[in-house]
Probable malate:quinone oxidoreductase
Amino acid sequence: MKKPIDVALIGGGIMSATLGTILKQLQPDWEIRIFERLDQVALESSNPWNNAGTGHSALCELNYTPERPDGTIDIASAVKVNEQFQVSRQFWAHLVDTGKLPEPSSFINATAHMSFVWGEDNVEYLRKRYDALKDHPLFAGLEFSEDAEVIRGWSPLLIPGRAKSQPIAATRIAAGTDVDFGALTRTLIRYLTDNGAEFTGHARVTGLKREKDNTWRVSWRDEVGQTPMQTHARFVFVGAGGYALGLLQKSGIKEIRGFGGFPVSGEFLRTDNPEVVARHVAKVYGKASVGSPPMSVPHLDLRVVDGNPSLMFGPYAGFSPKFLKSGSLLDLFASIRWHNLVPMVAAGASNLSLVKYLLSQLTASKNTKFDALREFVPSADPADWYRITAGQRVQVIKKDDKKGGVLQFGTEVVASADGSIAGLLGASPGASTAVPIMLGLLEKCFPDRIEGWKPALTAMVPSYGTLLSDDPKRADEVMTNTARSLQIAR
């Protein structure tokens, strides 16, 4: 048997690219191989047109600041997501400073983040959210206004054609960013291959089996020649998006028992009309419909892809049993096992509002969908907009002792007890928090090495092991240095 490699990364997305890049800093002598079933990297969830290009930092996403029954605003999730995004930004800044990433504008650009609502109740909610966040060190610079002229100055598209009597409000923070995770992924993978890692495209992984020596046999097929192949690895990371669930099930690790997945698809309206795009240099999020998943929060989103700005509005949710955009119609059914059947049924029964929401989206007419855009942009012209299909998201379903099963809208790292294999399930906030997720994975899978790695980890992420929100002065220093390196607003 050929000598096993040190690390096998399954999937050519932002998660594998991030983990591989971190490990290359920590253990430059380790042999790393990346397996991707398509011919190129970043074609699924990491592609910016598949709804992974926002840069989630909770500056404007209202689903992270729910209103409690007593009317107060819970900011815990917003602070957590912002902390995580700051970790990612620090790591990218380190890579720029050390010459491992090119010009920052190739993947990250300053873009104001806004929240925009209408109706008296929503205006009151946004005002309370502003009051709860404005003095927090991670949300410094947050502005609030109910003045149509002020809001028009922030984003000219939002006001023309709107009734003057309609109550409206917005918050804005200039320090937001737009991240092209497709470009970032490609750059990181290129860095890895330039420094000894091997990339194998058209490689469909078909099986994972633990050997007697505790290495893993990765069975894969060359999709071009249909040739079955095998590679042995000491550590395996399954970062294959929706296919991670099935591959972890094939590994046989007990930790995956009880996990299922619920796929959600979607589409956006997009415009590349430079006259329209020039009037909306921001990301604007509204409030989600009751029962809708976090990924379906309506937003009018500036995207800068390969240096070209466009606007996207949506998403409009849909349903497909595929677990990847290029997946199979049998994916959902193939994921069902005896140990996850009860959690999946229980999760479905307790999320009927989500089912109702999906049905309403599936049956909505084109005019109804465009009316949703006109709630944001009253003057929108259908001639400027066209439909694009978004990527697939597979929400985590897991066992719950009380309910039988719950539908989870975050991400979940599933690892074997010995740490020799791990995978990532779930979606939002996804790519924006890739770095802290992978750092957590290292702590989980390499507990015997993490202490020795700490100096290097702290050099890459100055706030590693601490919370910026606990020290406002330190937060300002770190965020200022990061912004300077990435050439974006503080």
Summary: Residues 5-486 form a domain with the FAD/NAD(P)-binding domain fold (CATH 3.50.50.60).
